[in-house]
Amino acid sequence: IQNQQDENKLKGKKVLITAGPTRETVDPVRFFSNRSSGKMGFALAEVAHRWGAEVTLIAGPVVIDPPSGINYVSVTTAQEMYEAVMNHKNDQDIIIKAAAVADYRPKQTHEHKMKKHEGNLVVEMERTNDILKELGEQKQQEYLVGFAAETKDIEYYGNKKLEKKNLDAIVMNDVSSTSTGFQSDENEVIVLTKRGLKEAIPQSSKAKISERLFEIFIEEKQGEKS
Ligand code: CTP
Ligand code: CA
What we know:
FMN binding, phosphopantothenoylcysteine decarboxylase activity, single chain, Coenzyme A biosynthesis bifunctional protein CoaBC, 226 residues, binds calcium ion, Rossmann fold, metal ion binding, two-stranded antiparallel sheet
C-alpha cells in the first residue's frame, strides 16, 4: 500500500536531473575529470520515475546503466551539459543538479596527441559556465536544488551556495569520507533549504536518501502555493 501511494507522489510532474562528472579534453587521448560516479543522480532519477514523474536525466560519462523509462541525455563536457540543461529547463517542476561539473577546462584543446618535452608542462585553464548559477538567475516556478561536495566547513559553504545561486535547497555531502559520497552506494547528507529547514539524513543507500530528499522537495513546493 505504501508503494502504491509512493507511485503517485510525483505524478504529472516534470523532473530534470543532472549526474556524473564532466570531461574536459586536452588532446585526443587525454582529459581532466573528477571522481563522480553518477550514482546519486541516477538514484534520484530512479525514485522520481518510480513516483510517477516525467524524468529527464542529463549525465556525463559514467559506467552505470540509466534507469529505463526516462529521457536520458548523454553528454561529455561542461559546455555540452550546459547546452543540454538550457534546452530542457523549461516547464520543469523540480531541477536537481547532482552533476560534478568541471569548473575549468583547458583553454586550448590539441588536435593531435601532445608530445612530451624536457621540463614542466603548464596547461592554461579557463572557466566553464556555472550552469546552476544561471538556472538560479532565470528561475521561474521550479524547485531548484544544488549539490555541494565539500571536504571542510560543509555548512558554511552550503549556505553561501544556497544564497549565491538562488536555490530552494542544497544537499551537502562530505566527500572526504570514504564510506559515503563519490563512488559509494551509500551516502550521508545535510539538506539546507531557503525556507530554513536543516536536516541531516543519516548514512543509508543512495535510493533511500533520494526518497527522503524528494519528500522534502515535494512538501516545500506544496507549501509554496498555500
Ligand atoms: N555547478 C554547475 N556548473 C558549474 C559548477 C557547478 O552547475 N560549472 C553546480 C553543481 O552541479 C552543484 C553546485 O553547482 O549542484 C555546486 O557545485 P560545487 O562544485 O560544490 O560548487 P561551485 O559553485 O563550483 O564552487 P567551488 O567548486 O569553488 O566550491
Ligand atoms: Ca566546483
